[in-house]
Design brief:
alpha/beta; Flavocytochrome C3, Chain A, domain 1; Methane Monooxygenase Hydroxylase, Chain G, domain 1; 5-stranded parallel beta sheet; binds ligand SFD; binds adenosine monophosphate
């Protein structure tokens, strides 16, 4: 048996993850915990200062409603999100985040984040909802505030959370292991907040070989939130709503600043703008095809149609956009100054959040003012906080949620004591970094209330913890037992290393669940075959082997991905229509149907191991 020390940590509120939502949760929980004399603990698999999606920094804050500035109303934001998600959204959740998000942004500024200002001192907008920032150190700033709030001694970094602890109908903690020391951790708590981000590398990425780790979504987010909530028995929502961003090709640089701030066009290899030449296609996706802005998945779809017709490569016309913006300045000296400003803003956009794209520009001799750059649709990701929607089905806030959407505590899952925020909570897209922070705060306030109102900790069965320990550390034993059976540690008749396991998962998803190589298209027979192959993979997961602590983490990351994959396939299969054609296309149900204007939810039963699929009504609050 693997020689690991068991460490037990007790708290009242346990925050899992150290990203934007978790940092928001920490700040808010600390405030309410102090009033109630409670202990808050946070656990991150990485170093919080640079963990999660914001690790590299960001160049924009994508959700700022600007209510006080009189720019927009909460209703406007809800309309935007509902339309972008083709009608499938929890308006109560979106409105709740929207009414709190501006205060998170003001906190970021107070903590030292530079937000661009114009000559009059007003925020510089990228688009209607987005603010430009000098965001290279965004995460460091937000994480420092979180650590200061709960105390560094309550932050456990480089501890990988694997499974939930559930007693009866209540989540009472989590178990995991250190990625640096031989320690198995048992965290017991009265309330647990899942905020471990979304998932990448479930699908085969476009880049293989030396580019494998490069993807739009950060490789460290590997489905822990979805796995955790599913395994706890929580109902999940929108598991079919993956996100496929369009990005600068191969290094995944963001396009938002180009489309919105620089007013750039994207054209195909023949110089045509697919948003114009394919406009009539939008008629097929009424009423959402007619709204402004055109929903993200439909923008993708028009581009994909050009690619299918062999009209690539698709190009972001950076040279044209820069020329247009500088041309508008009449004075020649000023015009030259403007040109230099635009050039440096273009580079900074990448240097702030996707450094590798700047490196690729340099490597390929691309000067954005001289020549366009290729853009492409990425492989699918699971990110409920951006323009996807997958996550746990959570309670809305008491004051605005319809009765059916409220069960006691805001952002509590259908399992008692378990809360979710950011990418971990579903059907509330377009929260981005700022909205995830705000949702973390909403969630933490409710979690503290839950801990105060449910002060008795259920007794946790030790045998259950021991069984989890044995399963979680099994890959270490597997390697030790069989390592001598071959001369190469990666190739062995008795076990499988996590990388090979991941390749197998990605191949299944790519070929059967609508990945890049099948042009995001799938159908019932393909999905059913995918499920069959996933079942074999699940069986083989007991043969995973880990040569080091790092590989032990890789093993469990891939198990987490596999569960996310299963929830995804099952839900695509359940929804017999195509609603987001630029995210995935059901070839056997190629159109949108009115009777599918519902949430497709699912739940795994920890007692029986069966999945239940269900429809939930969409209830509007406006
Ligand atoms: O332009 C475990 N996002 C952007 N948001 C913006 O506001 N502006 C932008 O400019 C953004 N851009 C962007 C964005 C995302 C990505 C990937 C890129 C560019 C390249 C979106 C936001 O980043 C996103 O909405 C939030 O970060 C979501 O917050 P949250 O908390 O749900 O996820 P997280 O921040 O990734 O944190 C996850 C944490 O969980 C930890 N973790 N801990 C313990 N055990 C485990 N098993 C764990 N698994 C994961 C992670 O370490 C991390 O701390 S633009 O392109 O859109
Ligand atoms: P991105 O860089 O693609 O993540 O975009 C940043 C923000 O701009 C997100 O809020 C996007 O939804 C939005 N956005 C990006 N491209 C467009 C576009 N062509 N039209 C409208 N909004 C966009």
């Amino acid at each position: 048996m693997a020689n690991f020390q068991t460490v037990e940590v007790n708290s009242d509120v346990l925050i899992l993850g150290g990203g934007m939502a978790a940092c928001g949760a920490a700040v808010e929980a600390a405030y309410w915990a102090k009033k109630n004399n409670l202990k808050v603990v946070l656990v991150d698999k990485a170093a919080m200062d640079r963990s999660g999606a914001v690790a590299m920094g960001l160049s924009a804050i994508n959700q700022y409603v600007g209510v006080k500035d009189g720019q927009n109303t909460i209703h406007n934001y809800v309309d935007y999100v509902r339309n972008d998600l083709m009608g499938i959204t929890r308006e109560d959740l979106v409105a709740n985040i929207a009414r709190h998000v501006d205060s998170s942004v003001h906190l970021f500024e107070k903590w030292g984040l530079p937000i661009w200002k114009d000559e009059k001192g007003a925020y510089v907008h990228e688009g209607r909802w987005q603010l430009m920032i000098n965001g290279e150190s965004y995460k460091v700033i937000v994480s420092e505030a979180a650590k200061n709030a709960i105390g560094a001694e309550n932050v456990y970094e480089r501890v990988f959370i694997v499974d939930p602890l559930v007693e009866g109908d209540r989540c009472v903690g989590a178990v995991g292991f250190s990625t640096r020391e031989n320690k198995f951790y048992v965290f017991k708590a009265k309330a647990v907040i899942a905020a471990m981000g979304g998932a990448v590398h479930v699908f085969k990425p476009r880049s293989a070989g030396e580019g494998l780790g490069r993807s739009w979504y950060p490789p460290f987010n590997s489905g822990a939130s979805a796995y955790f909530t599913i395994k706890a028995g929580a109902e999940m929502t929108c598991q079919e709503v993956r996100f496929i961003p369009v990005r600068f090709k191969d290094a995944y640089g963001p396009v938002g600043a180009w489309f919105l701030l620089f007013k750039s066009r994207a054209t195909n290899g023949q110089g045509e703008n697919y948003m114009e030449t394919r406009k009539s296609e939008l008629e097929n996706w009424k009423p959402y095809g007619q709204v402004k802005p055109v929903p993200a998945n439909l923008r993708n779809w028009l581009m994909m149609l050009d690619v299918k017709d062999g009209k690539g490569p698709i190009l972001m016309r950076t040279e044209e956009a820069i020329a247009n913006l500088s041309k508008a300045v009449p004075d020649e000296k000023e015009r030259k100054k403007k040109l230099r400003e635009l050039e440096s803003e273009a580079w900074e956009d990448f240097l702030d959040m996707t450094i590798s794209q700047a490196i690729l520009w340099a490597a390929q001799n691309i000067a954005p003012e001289e020549k366009p750059s290729e853009i492409a649709a990425c492989e699918p990701y699971f990110i409920g906080s951006h323009s996807g929607a997958s996550g746990a089905w959570v309670s809305g806030p008491e004051d605005i949620a319809p009765k059916e959407y409220f069960w006691g505590y805001a952002n509590m899952c259908t399992v008692k004591g378990l809360f979710a925020a950011g990418d971990a909570s579903g059907a509330s897209s377009h929260k981005f970094s700022s909205g995830s922070h705000a949702e973390g705060r909403i969630c933490a306030k409710a979690a503290v209330k839950y801990a105060v109102e449910n002060p008795t900790m259920p007794n946790i069965d030790n045998a259950k913890i021991e069984a989890l320990r044995t399963t979680i550390l099994a890959p270490v034993d597997m390697f030790e037992q069989f390592k001598k059976a071959s001369s190469d540690p990666d190739i062995n008749p008795n076990y499988m290393k996590p990388k090979m396991f991941m390749f197998r998962l990605q191949k299944i998803m790519d070929e059967y669940a609508g990945g890049v190589s099948t042009a995001f298209t799938t159908s019932k027979p393909l999905l059913e075959r995918g499920l069959e192959l996933l079942a074999f993979l699940k069986e083989d997961s007991t043969k995973l082997a880990a040569e080091s602590l790092h590989e032990l983490m890789r093993c469990w990351e891939n198990v987490h991905r596999m569960w996310q994959a299963e929830a995804h396939i099952r839900t695509i299969l359940f929804r017999e229509e195509t609603r987001w054609p630029g995210y995935y296309f059901r070839a056997d149900f190629p159109a949108m149907k009115d009777d599918w204007k519902v949430f497709a939810n699912c739940k795994w039963d920890p007692k029986t191991g069966n999945w239940e699929m269900m429809k939930r009504n969409i209830l509007s609050i406006y």
